[in-house]
Specification:
The structure is a single chain. This protein has 5 domains: about 200 residues, Hypothetical protein af1432, CATH 1.10.3210.10; about 140 residues, Beta Polymerase, domain 2, CATH 3.30.460; about 70 residues, no CATH class; about 70 residues, no CATH class; about 80 residues, ACT domain (Alpha-Beta Plaits, 2-Layer Sandwich). It is about 50% helix and about 15% strand. It has 30 helices and 20 strands. Strands 1, 2, 3, 4, 5 and 6 form a 6-stranded mixed sheet that branches. A 5-stranded mixed sheet has the order 12-16-14-15-13. The longest helix has about 30 residues. In eubacteria ppGpp (guanosine 3'-diphosphate 5'-diphosphate) is a mediator of the stringent response that coordinates a variety of cellular activities in response to changes in nutritional abundance.
Length: about 725
């Protein structure tokens, strides 16, 4: 480069630095400015030899990230300094110890966290990417600012990605959609989340992006005119109330328009709410609520509101801290318009996320608003039973869900994802309450655990020490927290049953004169066609593998030829897998409807479902039930046009499935007989009693009992044991 060009670049860098101080959201003290200046000087020196792919000096990147951190997100001087230094340790000769010595422990810790994230390999493999995401979130322990600066770093990289090769652009854009946009959303950085999504779409689906962008530009004039006419109608009334306000039109993001077009299978022109109108007013803190509702009243005097589209996030702010009043009204020309009513403070929180919270609420502490969320997140991160992919899916499930607000009997307010059930609420209060839920009352009435809650419900949880999760609970729960806790509990239960089974197996093999060792366990795993040794122990503990089957194994073992032959046939591909300490789930049976009936079915050719896929049954005219995947190309049409023929269906592991059976008992009525019968049932851990009815007539005793068991063997044993009770005459299955 010529001396003239270098001089020009130096001036540009100095200009950027002055701009950084000027646009900072916070008021910077002299001490702050000194810290930022030192960080700036070190960054300029460290990166002096480096250039970006576009050819510009590398230092422009850390300055741009620091500007996003300072103005868009509104973080403190420590964060601005860390943003300036975020690539220094990774890319230059400066070490972490140098940074700590010059800038102190906090800046060094943030820079270290950012360096760790940068060194994580990006993998196309979703599970590895998910595992990296989990690791990234673990750095939240160190400092929430690590993640926020990383989001700013990613935003600038996305804004300046044009000179990269196409395959890298797609890779980085996909990772942004998968990880960084959801994170920005959760921290309350809505503007940044929107920009990240739009920029990602620009590289993942360029044609669609450019098409929507050009159509938005074309309709801008029309949109401005519409907003002007809308504003004109209400301005006189707002002015009459002497309100200090501003009306802005905000176009919907390209990404959200694209999502609407996909979800509703409509064209750009058919998306009706392509923009929102924002009314931002100035107000003293104590008048905020009063003025918001006054503006609501004025808007609805002029335009008819859609009653089901009122969202009051002023009385009950979102868990991200977002506050506003949203109404959808029928505007001029018969178009629905979303109107967002916010005070200046609420608007800052909506744009700056938690940083604005700190400004208004927590002047002494920089993590007040995030504390509750971080605690919940930490709990999930430390749950090793949940796989990385499940974790990410549940994390995202909890991110994007709309919220409802429900009350405890004492009147405490909880926010839950829309669609949450009474069981989800139990887990939201406390894990232990969730795990021991026996029943729930909503607005004073007893309801099933699967009951879907509505905003404003008052929910009471009835607990019992004996209650514990069953497989069905997974059908009743909808929030990530509840699902992961139930899965962990079921896993623990199965492990407990497996441990009991191991002891039972030892005793039974001893009586069959077979050694309990690795060889015999491996042989049994093959013989009973299970995947792991833990599966084998579980099935023995649950009574699925009984004495009769173990005797069959013993006799096959004594026949050397048969044993050799069976081993040949059943030899597993991977010997190691046999001793894996996990209980695996098989999908070997398809059941239909709420009653989980076994019915005849055929697989459809259009989507070829396989065991484990999310599926539904469709009742055809000539071919009985045909099974389709939920995302089958024909699913929308079938479910929309022939909903009455659609049957819910799911795959289950038949060996771990519960069956309902009804027993009819007759005998001679004696004192304590009922007690003995129920005691026999309750003492068996693998039997759940669902219904009991006893009658006594002139000394003759009759009873009906509904029990839930894992299989027929357990039921047969129960029948035999009840028959042995003194006074029982007959026990039959209905």
């Amino acid at each position: 480069m010529t001396e003239q060009a270098l001089e020009k670049e130096r001036k540009a860098i100095a200009r950027e630095y002055k701009e950084l101080l000027r646009i900072s959201y916070r008021i910077l003290s002299d001490e702050d400015k000194k810290l930022i200046r030192s960080a700036f000087d070190v960054a300029v020196d460290a990166h002096k030899e480096q250039r970006r792919k576009s050819g510009e000096a590398y230092i422009f990147h850390p300055i741009a990230v620091a500007k996003i951190v300072a103005s868009e997100i509104g973080l403190d001087a420590t964060s601005i300094a860390a943003a300036l230094l975020h690539d220094v340790v990774e890319d230059t000769s400066y070490t972490l110890a140098d940074i700590e010595q010059m800038f102190g422990e906090v800046v060094a810790r943030i820079v270290d966290g950012l360096t760790k994230i940068s060194n994580m390999p990006y993998e196309g493999d979703v599970s590895l990417q998910a595992e990296n995401f989990r690791k990234m979130l673990l750095t939240l322990n160190e400092d929430i600012r690590v993640i926020i600066i990383k989001i700013a770093d990613r935003l600038h990289n996305m804004q300046t990605m044009d000179s990269m090769p196409a395959h890298k652009q797609v890779k980085i854009a996909s990772e942004t959609l998968y990880i960084y946009a959801p994170m920005a959303h959760r921290i309350g950085l809505y503007n940044i989340k929107t920009e990240l999504e739009d920029l990602s779409l620009k590289y993942t689906e360029p044609e669609i992006y450019n098409d929507i962008l050009s159509k938005i530009k074309e309709s801008k004039e029309q949109q401005d005119a519409y907003i002007k006419s809308f504003s004109k109608t209400i301005e006189d009334s707002l002015n009459a109330e002497k309100l200090d306000y501003e009306i802005k039109g905000r176009p919907k993001s390209i990404f959200s328009i694209r999502r609407k077009m996909q979800a509703q299978t409509v064209t750009f022109d058919q998306v009706y709410d392509k923009f929102a109108v924002r009314i931002i007013y100035k107000s003293a803190p104590e008048d905020e609520k009063f003025i918001a509702w006054k503006i609501y009243s004025i808007v609805t005097d002029h335009f008819r509101p859609n009653p089901v589209r009122l969202r009051d996030w002023i009385s009950s702010p979102k868990s991200t801290g977002y506050e506003a009043l949203h109404i959808t009204v029928m505007g001029p020309e018969g178009k629905w318009v979303e109107v967002q009513i916010r005070s200046e403070r609420m608007n800052e929180i909506a744009e700056k996320g938690f940083a604005a919270h700190y400004k208004y609420k927590n002047k002494n502490s920089d993590d007040g608003g995030l504390e509750v969320w971080l605690n919940k997140l930490q709990e999930t991160l430390e749950n090793q039973d949940i796989s990385a992919v499940d974790f990410v899916e549940e994390f995202k499930l909890n991110l994007y869900s709309k919220e409802i607000f429900v009350f405890t009997p004492k009147g405490d307010l909880y926010s839950l994802a829309k669609g949450a059930s009474a069981l989800d609420f139990a887990f939201a209060i406390h894990t232990e309450i969730g795990l021991h839920t026996r029943g729930t009352k909503v607005n004073g009435k007893l309801v099933p655990l699967s009951h879907i809650l509505n905003s404003g419900d008052q929910v009471e949880i009835i607990t019992s020490n004996n209650a514990k999760p069953t497989n069905n609970w997974l059908d009743y729960a909808h929030t990530g927290r509840a699902i992961s806790k139930i899965k962990s509990s079921l896993k623990e239960d199965r492990k407990e049953t497996a441990n009991e089974g191991k002891e039972v197996l030892k005793r039974k093999l001893k009586s069959l004169k077979i050694n309990f060792d690795d060889n015999s366990i491996t042989e049994m795993v093959r013989f009973f066609k299970v995947k792991t040794s833990l599966d084998l122990f579980y099935r023995v503990g649950a009574g699925i593998i009984d004495n009769k089957q173990l005797k069959e194994y013993a006799s096959s073992r004594s026949n050397a030829f048969v044993s050799f032959f069976k081993n040949k046939i059943r030899k597993p591909n991977n010997f190691e897998e046999i001793n894996k300490e996990e209980i695996t789930e098989k999908y070997d049976q398809l059941v239909f409807g709420k009653e989980e009936q076994k019915l005849d079915y055929k697989m459809s050719n259009c989507c070829n479902p396989i065991p484990g896929d999310d599926v539904f049954g469709f009742l055809t005219v000539n071919e009985g039930i045909k099974v389709h995947k939920q995302n089958c190309p024909n699913a929308v049409q079938l479910q929309g046009n022939y909903n009455y023929r659609v049957m819910p269906a799911k795959w289950i592991d038949s060996t771990q499935r519960d069956f309902k059976a009804e027993l009819s008992i007759t005998g001679i009525d004696t004192i304590g007989l009922v007690n003995e019968v129920t005691k026999e049932i309750s003492n068996n851990l693998n039997i759940d009693m669902r219904g009991v009815h006893f009658d006594s007539n002139d000394g003759v005793f009759t009873g009906n009992i509904v029990v839930v068991v894992k299989n027929k063997n357990i039921l047969d044993n129960l029948v035999q044991n009840i028959k042995k009770i003194n006074g029982i005459d007959k026990v039959t299955r209905k």
